[in-house]
């Protein structure tokens, strides 16, 4: 691969200017003419029959324009799942504190709030269940008629492999509910006109599938549903699948005949936010004396909360995630999606991988100790490799796992610091995660992005894409690839995004897919435009096609830079003749027709972390954090580093402090301070290391990176704590209380 | 009910980004809502509304404050700078340039608040060290960046200003 003009450069983000000046428009910054303000009345009970909802007083309040209850939305279900489908407003019963029961649209938020307080709801409380372990017991409280969901998978011959193993380790790990903590409060504006056309200014990182979900729920043809995505203030997976809010706003708008805006206030983003699924993971691994991993049996009990927004999808995915890291050939997997009377969860950065990787990589450290090996050698022995067919059938197209591991341990000074006396320790953990989406993730047997690019008469381009920018840098990635192909500047790329009416289909930002899938689409579409551009240029310059170069917004003859023509002039000439230079590509991942759930490429990496554990208080101080990631090729290293650093910090919070706490179904810490998310004073030094394995299919060799930073951090911390003070904490977050208790137990033993 | 309290609406006069505004506010109106809804300065972001996230940070008489915790009526006769007041036409303030060039921005929702906290710091203490910087933005929550590139951006802004 040759030198690039734009790819691999630390260029400023294309959206940075708008964001540093306050010019970027987020949902709450938009006001639509005639807009009303909506508020939602939420359930105070974790599990109760709804006996009656009296809205008569609310309706009489001056300024109230619409009031809706479960009767208005009766029969609608927000998504299709085997069990645990959700009505937009409660019908016969409520299943968590915070569930939507009724809603009001009024002239002001204050009036809407007051009207909500005037709605009288009679409940009959039902026995509730909060612990998923209780939920799997026979005779447990039934939250949904169809009950919990069981998912199982099996690869190879686990029984035989366990028989052939020299050592078998069995451990239970537990993970907690992590809040995504998007800084922008969730909201939407719905406007239904008299012809029944819905325009929704919403929040979703998967624009086009979201439109489909909305249309399905409302039984509308897609022609009547337009979704517009403004600047999105964080999402982290939470704002992927639809929830009740847009459907509620739709019915309020329909009743009022005016646009309705609903925005979460105060702690609503916590109370009605969607957590990372807490899990209890039993993992049994069989290994040979030489360190070869032979077999693994995994049982997962996942706490879905009250509804199955995506828990069954997540638990299904863990069935493959628990096989591929270190390529375990024989795997048996059982996952249980258990309903509890708590806020329901959803997709959060890494989607099941931070949970299962915490279990796998903590246990790898224990296996290494049992075998008297360094975990580094154990991992290198079982390392994944390019060309490997993992047991679910996908092929690894590029693999920088060994390089990541070696660079991470070198940077943390492993040899000097591992297994040393004192209260400091180092630990490491690795991950493997899709780097280009998952076939079938949005329904259908596909994993695609379509893009359309047109050249304007001044040589700039308009690039239309349904890919979604939520902070991760997609827009800049698209612009850099288009600019590289066409020999123009990123400033000359105008992005047309965030509107289902004007953008081509794309499955959106999920499973680290946009760089790989949408990036490839742009590379090919822009390449097609370049060919057309050079054809025009070859006539103007009287040179053959293969002698032309597009660079610096010009086309020139190789070796004769004086003989050139500006792209602007070529574009103008084409325009004046009615010949528009344009390119389009719908790129579907090339693994087709490989099995459902497979990924076209995988990302790898290792985090190595040094901690100090206070002898008296057991407070963990993270001293240094190295995160080496194989990203294929960094389209923009500055943005890649930002993704890694942000992921690491989210992972540190997951490891050490973040945890939603419920008491009888009520969240007791629904704010950033009590929840203990990390602030600037909490962060250790972080060293991101970019490893480039140059994927053979990815655009310029690139693959996804955005989720990865959050995945192995917790296990690396747990392993470092073990190295420091010799106690193994198997439940997250690793609080000083847990360490102290373990230290005491260790003393008495 | 608030509509009954119409009599307690008061007129205030304050300076925002160098311009003088007169507007009527209720005693319970926050500075944040007044800036966003009355003055249409929506660059200042509204999130937690209880002073924990810092997204609404503005500079009031030289100090960074959470505008959700300040009542508009308290700002009568005072001077406020919001994110919209930093760039002069298309010329960015050095802190804005630094955030653009150093990857200090991701989703952007914390960015205005971060920049205002940084500006208050650097106005008062141009040679602030890393601990000062971490403290100054210690109340500004960011879920995207892990703070690393924000801190680097603020340091880079110091370097630009020194030039």
CATH superfamily of the largest domain in chain B: Beta-grasp domain
Quickly name the level 1 CATH class of the largest domain in chain A: Alpha Beta
Instruction: Work out the number of β strands of chain B.
Output: 5
Strand order of the largest sheet of chain A: 3-5-1-12-9-10-11
Give the distance, in angstroms, between the N- and C-terminal Cα atoms of chain B: 56 Å
CATH topology of the largest domain in chain A: Aldehyde Oxidoreductase, domain 4
The low-confidence parts of chain B are: none
Overall geometry of chain A: globular
Stated plainly, the CATH topology of the largest domain in chain B is called: Ubiquitin-like (UB roll)
SSE pattern of chain B, N- to C-terminal:
EEHEEEHHHH
Major sheet of chain A: size, sense and barrel closure?
7 strands, mixed
Specify the overall morphology of chain B.
Answer: globular
Number of E-type strands of chain A: 28
Ranges of chain A where pLDDT stays below 50 over 5 or more residues in a row are: none
């Amino acid at each position: 691969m040759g030198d690039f003009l734009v790819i691999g450069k630390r260029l400023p983000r294309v959206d940075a200017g708008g964001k540093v000046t306050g010019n970027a428009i987020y949902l709450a910054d938009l006001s639509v003419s005639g807009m009303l303000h909506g508020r939602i009345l939420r359930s105070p009970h974790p599990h109760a029959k709804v006996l009656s909802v009296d809205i008569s007083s609310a309706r009489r309040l001056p300024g109230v324009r619409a009031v809706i209850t479960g009767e208005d939305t009766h029969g609608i279900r927000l998504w299709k799942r085997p069990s645990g489908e959700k009505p937009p407003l409660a019908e016969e019963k409520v299943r968590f504190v915070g569930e939507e029961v009724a809603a009001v649209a009024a002239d002001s938020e204050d009036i809407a709030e007051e009207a909500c307080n005037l709605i009288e709801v009679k409940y009959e409380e039902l026995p509730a269940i909060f612990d998923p372990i209780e939920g799997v017991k026979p005779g447990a409280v039934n939250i949904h008629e169809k009950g919990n969901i069981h998912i199982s998978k099996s690869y190879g011959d686990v029984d035989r492999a366990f028989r052939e193993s020299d050592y078998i380790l069995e451990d239970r790990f537990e993970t907690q509910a992590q809040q995504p903590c998007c800084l922008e409060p969730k909201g939407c504006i719905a406007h239904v006109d008299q012809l029944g056309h819905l325009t929704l200014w919403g929040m979703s990182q998967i624009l086009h599938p979201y439109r489909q979900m909305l249309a399905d729920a409302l039984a509308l043809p897609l022609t009547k549903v337009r979704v517009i995505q403004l600047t999105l203030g964080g999402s982290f997976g939470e704002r992927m699948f639809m929830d009740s809010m847009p459907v509620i706003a739709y019915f309020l708008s329909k009743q009022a005949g005016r646009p309705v805006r609903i925005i979460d206030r105060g702690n609503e983003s916590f109370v009605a936010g969607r957590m990372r699924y807490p899990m209890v993971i039993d993992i049994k691994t069989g290994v040979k004396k030489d360190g070869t991993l032979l077999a693994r049996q995994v049982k997962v009990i996942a706490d879905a909360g009250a509804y199955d927004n995506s828990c069954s999808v997540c638990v299904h995915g863990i069935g493959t995630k628990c096989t591929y890291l270190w390529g375990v050939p024989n795997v048996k997997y059982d996952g249980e999606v258990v309903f509890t009377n708590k806020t329901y969860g959803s997709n959060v950065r890494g989607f099941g991988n931070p949970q299962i990787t915490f279990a796998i990589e903590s246990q790898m450290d224990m296996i290494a100790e049992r075998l008297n090996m360094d975990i580094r050698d154990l991992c290198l022995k079982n390392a994944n490799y390019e060309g490997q067919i993992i047991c679910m059938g996908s092929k690894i197209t590029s693999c920088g796992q060994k390089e990541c591991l070696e660079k991470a341990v070198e940077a943390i000074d492993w040899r000097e610091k591992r297994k040393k006396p004192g209260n400091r320790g180092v630990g490491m953990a690795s991950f493997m995660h899709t780097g280009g989406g998952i076939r079938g993730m949005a329904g259908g047997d596909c994993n695609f992005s379509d893009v359309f690019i047109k050249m304007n008469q001044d040589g700039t381009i308009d690039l239309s894409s349904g890919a979604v920018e939520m902070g991760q840098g997609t827009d800049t990635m698209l612009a850099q690839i288009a600019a590289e192909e066409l020999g123009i500047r990123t400033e000359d790329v105008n992005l047309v995004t965030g509107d289902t009416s004007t953008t081509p289909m794309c499955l959106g930002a999920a499973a680290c897919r946009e760089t790989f899938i949408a990036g490839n689409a742009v590379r090919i579409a822009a390449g097609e435009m370049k060919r057309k551009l050079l054809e025009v240029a070859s006539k103007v310059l009287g040179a053959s096609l293969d002698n032309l170069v597009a660079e610096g917004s010009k086309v020139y003859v190789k070796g004769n830079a004086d003989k050139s023509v500006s792209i602007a002039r070529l574009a103008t000439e084409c325009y004046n003749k009615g010949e528009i230079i344009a390119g389009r590509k719908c790129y579907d991942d090339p693994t087709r027709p490989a099995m459902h759930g497979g990924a076209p490429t995988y990302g790898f990496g290792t985090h190595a972390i040094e901690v100090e554990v206070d002898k008296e208080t057991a407070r963990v101080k993270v001293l240094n954090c190295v995160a080496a990631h194989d990203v294929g090729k960094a389209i923009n290293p500055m943005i890649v580093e930002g993704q890694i650093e942000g992921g690491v910090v989210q992972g540190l919070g997951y490891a050490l402090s973040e945890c939603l706490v419920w008491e009888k179904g009520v969240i007791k810490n629904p704010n950033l301070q009590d929840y203990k998310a990390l602030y600037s004073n909490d962060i250790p030094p972080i060293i991101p290391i970019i490893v480039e394995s140059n994927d053979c299919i990815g655009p310029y060799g690139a693959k996804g990176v955005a989720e990865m930073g959050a995945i192995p951090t917790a296990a690396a911390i747990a392993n470092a704590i073990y190295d420091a003070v010799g106690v193994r904490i198997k439940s997250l977050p690793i609080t000083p209380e847990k360490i102290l208790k373990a230290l005491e137990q260790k003393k008495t033993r | 009910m608030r509509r009954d309290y119409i009599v307690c609406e008061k007129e205030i006069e304050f300076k925002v980004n160098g311009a003088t505004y007169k507007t009527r506010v209720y005693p319970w109106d926050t500075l944040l809502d007044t800036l966003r809804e009355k003055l249409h300065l929506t660059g200042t972001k509204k999130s937690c509304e209880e002073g924990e996230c810092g997204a609404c940070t503005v500079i009031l008489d030289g100090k960074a404050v959470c505008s959700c915790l300040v009542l508009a009526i308290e700002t009568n006769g005072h001077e406020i700078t919001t994110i919209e007041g930093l760039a002069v036409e298309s010329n960015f303030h050095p802190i804005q340039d630094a955030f653009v060039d150093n990857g200090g921005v991701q989703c952007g929702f914390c960015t205005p608040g971060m920049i205002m906290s940084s500006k208050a710091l650097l106005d008062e203490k141009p040679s602030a060290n890393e601990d000062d910087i971490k403290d100054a933005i210690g109340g500004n929550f960011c879920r995207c960046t892990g703070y690393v590139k924000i801190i680097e951006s603020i340091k880079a802004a110091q370097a630009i200003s020194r030039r």
